[in-house]
Structures are given as structure tokens and as C-alpha cells.
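Weekly sync notes, structure subgroup
Attendees: PM, AL, DS (notes)

Item 1: joint prediction request from the bench team. They want all two components modeled as one assembly rather than separately. Inputs as received:
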Amino acid sequence: DSGVTQTPKHLITATGQRVTLRCSPRSGDLSVYWYQQSLDQGLQFLIQYYNGEERAKGNILERFSAQQFPDLHSELNLSSLELGDSALYFCASVRDYEQYFGPGTRLTVT
Amino acid sequence: LAKTTQPISMDSYEGQEVNITCSHNNIATNDYITWYQQFPSQGPRFIIQGYKTKVTNEVASLFIPADRKSSTLSLPRVSLSDTAVYYCLVGEVSTGRRALTFGSGTRLQVQP
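Output from the run, pasted for the record:
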């Protein structure tokens, strides 16, 4: 158990819809990273937050947005969903020199 | 971040030592080499990190030659539970405070 929690574990929705994925970092960790992993692909970095502020952006689509709240949990919002958005979405937090990944949310867009 | 090249897949048997080599010809002076393990439908898990020579922990060893243009992850006496994808990453990740760039990884299949 990495100490990073993500909800929901699974999400099935239709094209055009909007969903929100939630991540709680390890206690005391200020950073949250979001990654997307499509089937049999490597992880793609989406966005990073540190103590409520956006720190870095990766390959995040304009239809996607995120935020980190004062209690340090983060939400990733995906809108106008397309079939190609079906993937595992991971968040990670940092302790020392390691990134600790959550169990992921599996999004299926039908 | 330096580009890495590693085999797409490897097969082994229980009890054998497995060595996965990663090439990173463009590694920079400040770059560290980090390996992650990922099981299906789970988040990656940190295995080991090193800068030069040899690093060993309770699960693996990491061998880095003097020119640092490659590295080898060594898993001693693998078991079925070591079947996973192994990612080699190179970059200034010593503090863990940068996003990680994952390649395709090496899919290790351990047979009984």
C-alpha cells in the first residue's frame, strides 16, 4: 500500500460526458502528479500540483483540467469524453526521492 | 530527459537471475537512473535508483558502468510474482520532484 488513494476504482461512462477523478496524496506530501496509461502503453505525464499550485504540464488535453485543494487532495476533470480517453489514470505523490503511485482509476468510455 | 532503450520483453524461469539492460547514451551529468516495476492494473513501484557503479537493496541490484551509457537491473532468483513490466528512467529524479517520463518498458514473464 503506497498510501496514495484514488477514487473511484472503476468508472464507465459515455462519449461526450464529464467525469471527475479524485486523488489523496500520502499524509504530509505536498505534490500530486497525474498520469494517463492507455492499454499496453507507458505512462504519460499529464500535470503536477504542489501545495495547491500548478507546477508543470505534460501532455494534457484542453478538455482535461485539474486542481489541488487546501487539504491537498486533487481532482482531475475530464470533459467531452472520447473513446480514446479510456485508460488508467494514476496519481502519485513524492517522498524523498521516490514517487508513490496510487492504485489508479480505470476509465472506460463507451 | 535522456532517451532510454530497453528490450520489449524477456522470459525467464523461477529461480533464475534476470538481467535487464537499459541503454541511455545521452545521459547527462546530473541524471540518475531509476527503475520502476508495474504489475497489471497497478501503479508503478520504485525498485532502485543509482548514479554510478553498483547499488543493491533487498530486492535488486543496479549495475552502472563507468561511462554510464547503460545500466543493468539484476533480479536474483526470480519467482512467478516478479512477472511485471520494468521501466528504466533517466533524469534528474534524485529528489523525486519531477514528473517521470516512462518508455514502453520491458515485459518480464517468469515461467514455473
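Discussion: Residues 9 and 105 of chain A are 5 Å apart (CA to CA).
Action: AL to compare against the crosslinking data before next sync.
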